[in-house]
Amino acid sequence: MALGVLAVLVLVGIAISRITMSGRWSTVFSSHEKHAEECAESAANLTFKIVKDNMNDYSAFWELFTKPDKLLRSWFMYFRLPAPVAAAYIDPVSFENAKANGIDVQLDLFNNVLFKPLYEDGIVYVYDTVSEDPEAPLAPLKGMFDARGGRVRVICTARIKKAFAILADDADFVVGGVEVPLRKVTGFLGSIYDKIKIGAADVVSGINKDPTGENSGAGGFQMPNIDVIKFLPDTPLLKAPDISGITIIVQGVPVPVGIILQKPVDAIFNKISSELGLTPQKIAKKIFGDKLQFHIDFKAINERIESAIQNCIPEFLRAFAGNVTFDVTVEKQGFFEVVAEVEYYPHYPEETVIKKKLVMHREFRVADIQPIASDYTFFIANSKLLYEKSLENFDNWEGDDQIKWDEGGGTLVIHNMPSFTALFDTIKNIFSFNIKDLARKLQLPGLVRVNGTKEMLIKLTLFDKWPFGSDALEVFKRMEVVALLTPHKSDSGYPKTACSGDHPSEHADDKHNVIPNLKSVRYNFWDKGKPFDWPYFGGGEPGGIGNYWLPIPPRFASNLLFGHLFMEFPFSMRVEGYLKKVYSHISLLLVKIYIPPIPIIGFAGLDIPIPWFWAKAKKEPYGYCMFPPYKSDDEAKAAWNPNDKGNLPANTYSPTQYLKKASYFYPTSRDFTRDIENRVIDYKGKRTFICDGVTFINDSLWLEDDLHVMGRGIIVAAANVHLKGNITKEEFDANGNATVFSIVARNGSIVNHYGDREIHACLFGDKGITNPIGATMKVYGNLVVNRFSRKDLKGDLHVYYQSNHCRSSLLSMIRPVAKWDPTRYYVTFSAQTAYFKFEKTDRN
Amino acid sequence: MKTRAVTLVEICLALTILVVALIPLMRMSSSDAVTVIETEKIQMAERILESIKTEITAMPFKRFYERIDAEGTNAAEEAGPFVLSDGFYPISLSEVLEIQKKYKDFAVVGTWSFLLKEGKPDKTMVQTDISCSFSRAGNAPPVVRNKSFLIVKP
Fold first, then answer.
1. Does residue A27 sit in the same domain as residue A151?
2. Which among B125, B148, B149 has CB closest to A140?
3. Angle at which helices B90-102 and B8-58 pack, to 10 degrees?
């Protein structure tokens, strides 16, 4: 019995001892497991960082795009591959209206044989502490892996797990240039934007016809060599009138007053001419400096751009050229997956191994950050089609307003070229730039568009006050006499029919006479005299009989859509819109009334000269007479109809779409202001706000202070954008990429508060733009509005087009391929982890 | 029937066996109590390490830069390791202090350093190493629990 008791006690003792041993072992083992898990987590985090560091590396794109295999396996391209909207390819028409809410429309990532393996296999990184490669992407983890001893082998697989389209809630809402093709650019230069040569074939995306007939899309029209001398003759705008033949009868004796007065009149006019330099060329040099050149070879520019673009699109994207529909998209949101599989050998070379498999997901977004209507300096959409929901159009606005350009105050100046220096530097460098610099630095003039089916009148400005004193140069800058200086025919002989008919000379191919002259007639108040045309200087409204002319500068709100001196012309040389320029047709008559002799009182007869100055307002298609924007009024009415989807400003997304693709969301402006400090870095000694991707503020945005920005992104405010500080930009980031920054008041206005303002951004204001009296606002970028009320502009507004800050690259301007330009998309990861789980490992 | 009494010798023998058997059992039991305490400490250590990790991960990344600035210009050129001071984890620190009221031997130390990329410190990635330790009875070495993790600049 004793032995039995002893045996039992021994067994109990052994059991307790083993439990303790096992506890110790499990403690040690669990420590190894923890280490393996830590390795997996760190490797997954580093993989996310590697992806993040490379997914927006535009430099890599330009270096790799000639190597399709490498480019395709780069993170930059991986996120920007076109993907069909699932099922859309089966029945796109019915599918388009089948989904009320685009958020659950999954993308079919596996339909394209070229892209399928990329999505299935992902991109894999391997690192092993035994056979280590110091160049390996995961090599920075060496220190951490080595710290615990043993061997760590890690395989990280990164890929898009799921992706969804970013569609509007309303299936009828379309995005111009992305989901529907845009109308052809007006004029001969339009074909630069509207077509691309792929192989031997031209791919054209523009719809409808060009009202000038020049941009047929099939080529054929000869690009002109623009000779600015034609716009800017060196002949004086003011000449002393020839009065030498004027005689008047005094006491029955003809007195040649003309001969007597001609010399002093000549002297006065010569003095004015030499002091003010009143020739178009001299004025232009004063305004634009000596950089002003006189020849622009658009043919050469066109050919250079065309050849550059041909080599600018990776081969695997060429099949998509010309596809501007909703069913294939580059924009997407979804989940990005990193799977980190770790093998940890704690006592290497012993074979004991601990395996761990960590799966992590994060949300990602690929958002289009191309500014709205990026090829336009100024765009008035005037369309109800830009509203997605009826709530946005609360006043049931029908669009197609007839804009009253005379209302309001101040001067609206659209500088379609950033500066002549920049433009001509571009022209000079266009053949020496490599493709990367061409895409990033090329400066082209912007276009101007005013949608509407109703005729709109813009009065040309001569002087808003007399050009004397210290601000004479400012007055000259606003002079638009150049609008009347070009003849009504071009070198090519292409008919310029729009200017005929209402032309004062009654010769369609003639040009306006702008030199004032005086004619002496007897009795005939209806004599045509030697009339001349000036920018609007009185004369009532077009169609009226006119009125007596007094040379006093008239007061009206000036609109300089061709910039200073009418010389900063749009790229197409026209304004796209049913606009007419209003000018004054002036006759200066000296009507002599002869009072016959009255011998009884010794009166021998006398001429009474009556100055009969008559001005009458006339109208013609807006722009240079040589390049009318349309051939007939009927064509103009139809061409820029705001209810035509092809006339929408490109890249205008619905509020829901901006919301869905936002990387940052703030309920109020105050939340945004509070977070600015977290998004600011010190760059070149300035506190610089990094704007990447889409920032959505579900409120009016109040920018209370100055803001210096860098990066590629959009700030979208659901309502108004109030500007109380300046916005400046860093021209280029550390990698030489231009800052491309937009501010969108999606359902509100851009409101400048009192004070002069400089805004370096592309602006969109659905309800227009407001500038108070006395304030000068300068926008460096472009300006797009939906509704436009000129009377909301009371102070001066300048829009300086900056081509390379309005586009992501040159490729994004070429409409058949613009949507597929990878550089216009910005990828962001959510900071939060959406899924984190250690799963059973399936590797042996 | 004659009943047999238990002799004194038998009683003494049984008691001896019982004593011999009980001594190690008693020792084991006492050792178990120590183990229970150790286990509790290990659990606390793990919890503290996790808590510190959460706190540091949630902290704005610029704190690391501020810390370098505070340490002077030379530190800006270095990859580390730098001491993980209490200021990095104030909430977890209050937990540690609470534990130290009961177990005075409970200690937390840590370092952080920038990861090296191509031989140079990459200031967008920080490796953090934290150790939680406490002593053991007798001459046994102290228990040390470690945690290493990577923080990437958002």
1. yes
2. B125
3. 160
Q: What is the pLDDT of residue A378?
A: 97
Q: How much is the ipTM here?
A: 0.79
Do A358 and A462 lie in a common domain? no
- Region B29-45 average pLDDT: 75
Q: Does one domain contain both A608 and A683?
A: no
Q: How many domains does chain A have?
A: 3
* Chain A interface with B: residues with Cβ < 8 Å: 2, 5-6, 9, 12-13, 16-17, 20, 23, 27, 31, 34-35, 38, 41-42, 45-46, 48-49, 134, 139-141, 143-144, 147-148, 678, 831
Distance from CA of A648 to the nearest CA of B (A): 37
Min Cα–Cα distance to chain B from A492, Å: 59
Mean pLDDT estimate for chain B: 82
Give a yes or no: residue A64 inside a domain.
Answer: no
Q: Is residue A315 part of a domain?
A: no
Cα(A459)–Cα(A584) distance, integer angstroms: 9
Q: Are residues A361 and A411 in the same domain?
A: no
Q: Long-range pairs for A116-119 at CB < 8 Å and ≥24 separation?
A: A118/A72, A118/A73, A118/A78, A118/A81, A118/A159, A119/A159, A119/A160
Q: What is the reported pLDDT for A560? A: 95
Query: Does A473 share its domain with A612?
Result: yes
Per-residue pLDDT tens for B113-154?
A: 888 887 788 888 999 999 888 887 777 788 888 888 999 888
What's the pLDDT score for residue A94? 39
Residue ending a domain, among A610, A639, A668, is A639
Same domain, A684 and A802: yes
* Chain B environment of A20 (Cβ under 8 Å): 28, 31-32, 35
pLDDT at B39 over 60: yes
Which of B147, B150, B154 shows the shortest C-beta gap to A46? Answer: B150
CA distance A121 to A112: 14
Q: Is the dihedral of CA A393, A396, A401, A403 positive or negative?
A: negative
Ramachandran angles phi, psi of A104, nearest 5°: -100, 20
DSSP state of B143: E
* pLDDT greater at residue B86 or residue A44: A44
Instruction: Identify the contact set of chain B against chain A, taking CB-CB distances under 8 A.
Output: 13-14, 17, 21, 24-25, 28, 31-32, 35, 39, 42, 60, 113, 115-118, 122, 124-125, 127, 129, 145-152, 154
Q: Which residue, of A586, A606, A639, is where some domain finishes?
A: A639
Q: Examine the domain organization and report whether A766 and A794 are in the same domain.
A: yes
Range of A134's domain? 2-54+86-174+330-366+831-839
Residues of chain A predicted below pLDDT 50: 88-103, 501
The CA–CA distances, whole Å, from A210 to A204, A216, A450 equal 13, 7, 15
Contact A184, A217 (CB under 8 A): yes
If asked whether residues A356 and A377 sit together in one domain, one would say no
Is residue A500 in a domain? Answer: yes
B32:A20 CB<8 A:
yes
Contact across the interface for B150 and A41, Cβ inside 8 Å: yes
Number of H helices, E strands in chain A: 20, 40
- The predicted pLDDT at position A843 comes to 60
**Structural domain contains residue A183:** no
Contacts of B146 in chain A (CB under 8 A): 31, 35, 148
